[in-house]
Amino acid sequence: MPELPEVEVARRVIASVLEGGRVERVWVRDALVAKGLAGLEGWRAERVARRGKWLRIELTSGTEKGAGERRDDAQGAVILFAHLGMSGKWLAIEPGAPELPYERVRVEVVRGGKRGGLVYLDTRRLGRIRAAHADTATWAALGPDVLEDGVDAHALFRALQGTRRSVKEALLDQRILAGAGNIHAIEALWRARIDPRSRSDALSLADVRALARAVRASIAFGLGLYGREAALAYVNEADGANPYRIYQRHGTPCPRCRTPLAKIVLGGRGTTFCPSCQRRIVGAPR
Question: Which alpha helices (DSSP H) does the chain contain, by range?
């Protein structure tokens, strides 16, 4: 399942083909997944950005006049917001390559006199690509990005003091911290030795400092799984390897204390944890 590391890899793939190039052609093969992409032929991709698990692709209708000079017409700019859902992947392809299984969108680009291509694949069709003329409310509401902004322990502590939810559920709230999903929330809480059922407003500043370090470390570990040219491989895929310490490893010994790992459901999401070495902080809901 894509979380911040996978979405950052997707951003790099898109930027390597699209950024600074001119859109030559767009095929939308699934109108549920992608909307608002008609008429983008000839537009220039200025920047591919990411915040948390969202991608932001800015295009302008400007045309090149000469060195350092560009003319923009009245159409202004279009911003594409893309989310990978549960199974989305962006791949670089050669122009004219055969259609791939589960292909939802294809884009061909001219950049620096060379043609390139991108496809968006999505087996479960839960990803979304939407066009807008300004930042969406969802994008504007995203909290600090773990990779770009870091994790400020004091800011995170203040945010957690404002909710009585379990700390696991709070970590999944992208308004508090953008980027961590179920995998990295589970892994970070294990690293920080905090029981996921602990109530957010019961954590001390020292607890939150440990959690901030653990979130940064887990995201860095996840990103380190991918080389510059590595293809995305999700844990939930049939042939996907599981490189994580405790995620989906319930019933096996804890890597730290050898107690069998347990699994519960929090906020509708399966949650693996160690009932021995992850401390349930006083005040956690029962």
Answer: 4-18, 137-141, 153-161, 167-171, 182-192, 205-224
Which residues, at least 6 apart from 146, have a Cβ–Cβ distance to it below 8 Å?
A: 4, 52, 177, 178, 179, 180, 215, 216, 219
Res 53: pLDDT: 97
> Active site includes 269?
yes
CB 262 within 8 A of CB 278: no
Active site residue 89: no
**57 φψ region: left (φ > 0), alpha (ψ -120 to 50), beta (else):** beta
Digit-coded pLDDT (tens) for 113-130: 999 999 999 999 999 999
Structural contact between residues 91 and 132, judged by C-beta atoms closer than 8 angstroms: no
Q: Is 243 a catalytic residue?
A: no
Domains of the chain: 4-141 (3.20.190.10), 153-273 (1.10.8.50)
Which residue is catalytic, options 216, 263, 269, 279?
269
| Active-site entry in 11, 50, 53, 199 | 53
The predicted structure's pLDDT at residue 228? 62
Q: Which two tokens stand for residue 11?
A: 């951003």
Residue 228 is among the residues annotated as catalytic for this protein: no
Low-confidence stretches of the chain (pLDDT beneath 50): 64-74, 284-286
As a whole number of angstroms, the distance between CA 280 and CA 197 comes to 7
Q: Considering 2, 5, 144, 196, which one is annotated as catalytic? A: 2
